[in-house]
Amino acid sequence: MPSWKELERFLKHDGWEYRPKNSGRDKTYTKMLPSGEILWSRVSKGSGQIGKGLFAAILKHQLKASPEYFNQVLANKKNASNNRGTRD
User: Fold this and answer.
1) pLDDT digit of tens for each residue in the chain (88 aa)?
2) Which one of 3, 10, 25, 39 is separated from 73 by 20 to 30 angstroms, measured CA to CA?
3) What is the spatial distance between Cα 23 and Cα 80, in angstroms, rounded to a whole number?
4) What number of CA atoms fall less than 13 Å from residue 27's CA on the CB side?
5) Cα-Cα-Cα-Cα dihedral sign, residues 57, 30, 43, 4
6) Please, are residues 20 and 71 in contact by the beta-carbon 8 Å criterion?
7) Side by side, which strands form the sheet with 17-19?
8) Would you state the pLDDT for residue 81?
9) How are the residues of the chain apportioned to helix, strand and coil, as percentages rounded to the nearest 5?
10) Closest Cα partner for 67 from 5, 8, 10, 4?
11) How confident is the model at residue 24, as a pLDDT?
12) Which range of residues forms the domain containing residue 51?
């Protein structure tokens, strides 16, 4: 399972925008898709790995991306393609 640092690295490489806030434990990122839909994700400032169930939920509900897309972006250090490989 990926770590919180890997999730944040994915968000940066995939073109997400950091939204600083004055309080809270998590970092917030947003991304506008070509369809106009705005996605948001939170990254824990803690260290360590993300649990399997939580990571699956993050992929599905926040990133709207497949595990393959996530890994491609991390490996290539850039947006893999316009197809996020989502599973509905």
Assistant:
1) 899 999 999 999 999 999 987 667 789 999 999 999 999 999 998 879 999 999 999 999 999 999 999 999 999 987 766 566 654 3
2) 25
3) 33
4) 16
5) positive
6) no
7) 17-19, 26-32, 38-44
8) 60
9) 35, 20, 40
10) 10
11) 75
12) 4-76
CATH of the domain at 39: 3.30.920
81 is a domain residue? no
CA–centroid distance for 28 within its chain: 10
Tell me the C-alpha distance between 2 and 49, whole Å.
6
Residue type, 42: R
Instruction: Supply 26's token pair.
Output: 């998590």
State the amino acid at position 10 in one-letter form: F
Q: Does residue 34 lie in a domain region?
A: yes
Q: For tokens 């917030």, name the residue.
A: 28
Is 36 among the domain residues? Answer: yes
